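Entry 14. Structure prediction run on the chain below.
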Amino acid sequence: MPMKMTEGVHPVTAPKEVVNRIKAECEQLWAEVSKIHGEVVASKEPVSCSQEDALLKIYQVKEKRLRAEVELLKEKKVEALPTNQEVLHGILKAELQRSVSELTQTLSNVRAEKQILEEENQRLAERESQHDAIKEALESKLAEVEHEVTHSTAEGYLKDLQQKNKKAVKYMNTVMLKMKEFVDEHFPPPTEEDIEKWTKKHGKSGQKSHGSNTRIKYLPLQTILEELMNSCMDTPHNPYVTLDETYWPPYVELLLRYDIVLKHPDDDMKIKLVPFHLGNT
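Output returned:
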């Protein structure tokens, strides 16, 4: 027995359970997409996921939706459009509104993706600007160094060394002059009376040289210091000075007592100036 038709609409024979299940799944997926989109728009900072991950999730959702639509179309038989103009207008209007809503959601997603890409592009531009500034500074420094190397000659270095040497000699002469004035004032050469007192105190005959009646002429402290300094600078590998009878013993003891000179570890008749210029003894 044939089925009745109302308003010229043909019956739909698609299983309602399959249709309802697919619709529910589509609505759930679309709700998830809308929620993610709302979070992206509401957040002031870019999402933590990368651009590739975001696009992948969107495409996966779209793929599921399309698969659901395909399954629905497979289960659904061809429907004839209603002949009633008002009903047809209502159906087309609903479809149009649904399409507009979907396109609006898509536009919102595209704008969110655009914002992420613009922020990433801005960060890349700032980084490029920093790299350009560093490059410019390095090139300027390199050009300056090359200019200095090109315009510097051996003659310029020699002149600089000569000036430094001149200053060093002038400073050394000043120091030597001050040292001579200090030594002459506080440590004059020993007199005969000083020599007699020292020899009597130590029980030695220090007035005459061995095998001769000639009186010993002791070196002034200034001369002793000069010999020690010259030996230290001229022969740094062997800065020792050999003591003889012309060295006034009290002067030698004075220098040893105040750590100005050191004795040779194997020969007590050799002394050297403490290398103060090396920063240690």
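Residues 85-151 form the longest helix (67 residues).
Filed with the rest of this week's runs.
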